[in-house]
Amino acid sequence: AAPLTVGTLSFNPEQKTALPAFNTVALNIPITSAGQPATVATGLSLTSDCVGAGTATLVAGAMSNGVQVATYTNNGCSLGRDVITASIGNSSQTISLAVSPANIGSVQFSGSSVSGTSIVLKGSGGEGRSESAQLTFRVVDQQNKGLAGVEVDFAATTYTGGLTVNPRHATTDANGNVSTMVSSGTIPTPVRVTATATRNGLTIAGLSDALTISTGLPIQRSMSMSADHYNIEGGDIDGQRVGIMVRLADQYGNPVSDGTTINFVTEGGAVGSSAQGACNTKDGGCSVDLITQNFRPKDGRVTVLAFVQGIENFVDLNGDGQYTCKGAAAGYQPLVGPCPSGGEPFPNPSDEPGDMGDPFLDTNLNGVYEPALGDRPFPFKNTTFKEKGDGEWGMNYLRSSIEVIFSGSDAFLTQVCNEGDCVGGPLANGAVIPVAGAAGASCQARNLSVRLADRNGNPLPFGTSVTVPSANKLSVAAVSPATINSTTTSGGTVHLMTVTPDSACAPGDFTLQVKTPQGKITEFKFIAN
Ligand SMILES: [Ca+2]
Ligand SMILES: [Ca+2]
Ligand SMILES: [Ca+2]
Ligand SMILES: [Ca+2]
């Protein structure tokens, strides 16, 4: 058979303008054999620059009257002009057409190099504290495919305090990603970055998540410490746990840098994880467990101290949110160094602490350092306790203390009142208590109040139930409160109940049962006769 010959290629319809991305056009490929229209296109090869780049396809279809038809699809080829080659053996023809790159579908914010949402003020960085964040965006087409080679401009929503965005202009990589760096200025502010991309005359912008510029350093007045509850069943039982939480903020009320380490020490039991007696903040707070075990202070009252590096309180006289030095250049913020000629004053110590001495474990929480009672200065490197501060505003160990009761499991009645007539205790398990006036002549309903405590006069454990499981010839309205709440109140808890005689004023009795969360039961018998 005669060899096949490829004739002049043409598009149907003719391409007068660039073929937009994701559009198709038919390509006609005439083929002859010995001058006559061929009936087959055996050995036909179709290629193009865009096909080679993976951004276009050429698919052969039907053949009729000596013309092979192929479908060309522009999948967003960014070469501008494509050259198509059709060949059979030694015969080949080319045709070119203009192609448009894909339009930008969207500019998406894909993430920040900092784990939280904040970076710290310029000059206040340090370990774990970042003064800049790399923000990454992705430019995609309508098919959500990354677009390479797109020009992107970056701008911040504010440049206050010398905040910078660098670079201001970049080009997307092969996957459509593009990044810029935000570096903090000297003024705290929220900021977002817009990325603006332009292609085919179309401009689309994307916005980053909000980033907060803060000092990242906690201030004493914002340090908060709490326990899930304050009376735990630890007087007699080991291994009971309660969560101790500390929350921090900087002087603007912004979260501190993630990973700020808070140290804990305790007068009794154990505190912290197996790794260390500390936790690292996330979103401004972190918590540790306090675990019941020896040492147990005799009075059952356990002080827990938390301390963390931060800044001392000050009075913001000029309202700029920062500690201001006299005669210093605007924007200068001494975080460690003193003010050469003095600065804003400390608060009145009766309102809140100002210039602080050393933190100490205050075993009786009276605010007085008493080493003979077990009060100890922290951190450990402090061999001598310094009561007074250094006279200058700056970094210090912020501190907070709470007291958690290691409550005993045995209940004692320390007081019983019958319509205001009270008798004291303590009465132990099995005690029998007369209830005057609830039986016999002129009997009537009696309001009783009982005070319950553990052996130290401290509240019974949180969650202890106080109920009347049985009553004979009289009725007792539900005890109020029927459960012991979270409290550290010295002297225990008071519970009310109303005793109603039966209609005959017959002698009767009832049992008051106290059951701790760990199942320890104490019972008292009340008798009316
Ligand atoms: Ca100020
Ligand atoms: Ca104590
Ligand atoms: Ca003390
Ligand atoms: Ca100081």
Protein architecture, described:
With 529 residues, the protein is an all-beta fold. The chain is elongated. The mean pLDDT is 91. The protein has four domains: 4-98, Immunoglobulins (Immunoglobulin-like, Sandwich); 106-214, Immunoglobulins (Immunoglobulin-like, Sandwich), CATH 2.60.40; 217-406, Immunoglobulin-like (Sandwich); 412-528, Immunoglobulins (Immunoglobulin-like, Sandwich), CATH 2.60.40.10. It has one helix and 40 strands. One calcium ion (CA) binds at residues 312, 355, 389-390, 392-394, 396.
Please summarize what this structure is.
Strand 8 and strand 9 (about 90-100) form a beta hairpin. This protein is mainly β and about 525 residues long.
Helix content: under 10%
The computed structural class is mainly beta
The number of helical segments is 1
CATH architecture of the largest domain: Sandwich
Tell me, rounded to a whole number, the average pLDDT.
Answer: 91
CATH class assignment of the largest domain:
Mainly Beta
In this entry the ligands are: calcium ion
Question: Low-confidence stretches at least 5 residues in length (pLDDT < 50)?
Answer: none
Taking the sheet with the most strands, its summary is: 6 strands, antiparallel
Radius of gyration: 40 Å
Shape: elongated
- Number of spatially distinct domains: 4
Reported by name, the CATH topology of the largest domain is Immunoglobulin-like
